[in-house]
Amino acid sequence: MAKKRKGRAINGVLLLDKPYEMSSNNALQRVKHIYFAQKAGHTGALDPLATGMLPICLGEGTKFSQFLLDTDKTYVVTAKLGIRTTTSDADGDIVSEKEVNVSAEQLNTALDSFRGTTQQIPSMYSALKYQGQPLYKYAREGIEVPRESRDITVFNLELLRFEGDEVDLSIHVSKGTYIRTIVDDLGELLGCGAHVAHLRRTAVGNYPKNRMVTMEELEALLEKAEADEVSPSTLLDPLLLPMTTACDGIPPVFVDDMSAHYLRHGNPVQASNAPEDGMVQVFIGDNINEGEFIGVGFIDDEGRVAPKRIVVAQ
Fold this sequence. Notes:
Strands 1, 2, 3, 4, 7, 10, 11, 12 and 13 form a nine-stranded mixed β-sheet that branches. A four-stranded mixed β-sheet has the order 14-15-16-17. Helix content is about 25%, strand content about 30%. By secondary structure, the chain is α+β, with helices and mostly antiparallel strands. The longest helix is centred in the C-terminal third of the chain and has 14 residues, at about 215-230.
């Protein structure tokens, strides 16, 4: 007999403003506990020293976390010039210290080289895996393993402040881009070294910044619910965004109840409004606002909608 999951079958996406010095996994587990959710997953870890937007998917929403992993992201970073570290951030050991003698013109010229599509070699202190182990585990043992360079795109790179040995940047990047690597490479270009002093993620895809919620706010709502003798869900659940928001940008198709039944049993179906190829969001009904979201599919070789990530019927 299968063991029943503990917790509520609550579905949605919470935009957590991850606090400083908390790991993404600890933040995830705390949110899962606060919501008493059966399942929870985050959508791309932030380093403990970083703050900002960490979308946390609850329940069936975890099936669509990959789409948020694959989306572009925006950060505000403070680079400290003159000091290079092992981890390329303030948590690492100092590798070198050099005098900072950089002009605004030199800085702007260096920044130009990062704009657009370039190649990046991931940091040894990233969570990418090599032979089943995260790179950072090798790095902590002093082992360097081969990493292939890969294409990244910096859609926008804005210089916000340059004072003394500190540079503030706003960076909008494609998936898989390591800001610490950009900062380390910038320091090498300038000849003085650099590391990340502060990092904040301000956007994931098109999620609105004003919907972010701090851990303190969640804790306060729990206390208020207890004081008012009401269910915490009445105060917490309105903070969740629909799980369809994790699939932003994927075109919708609409099916009837019978087709939805077949999709839920793993069978492809015809949909009159389906595109020629690619991924699709699937709704029962004839519009997004009133239709029931049943998951994400893809167009197969015969032009049918085939299931990929399907929501369990509630």
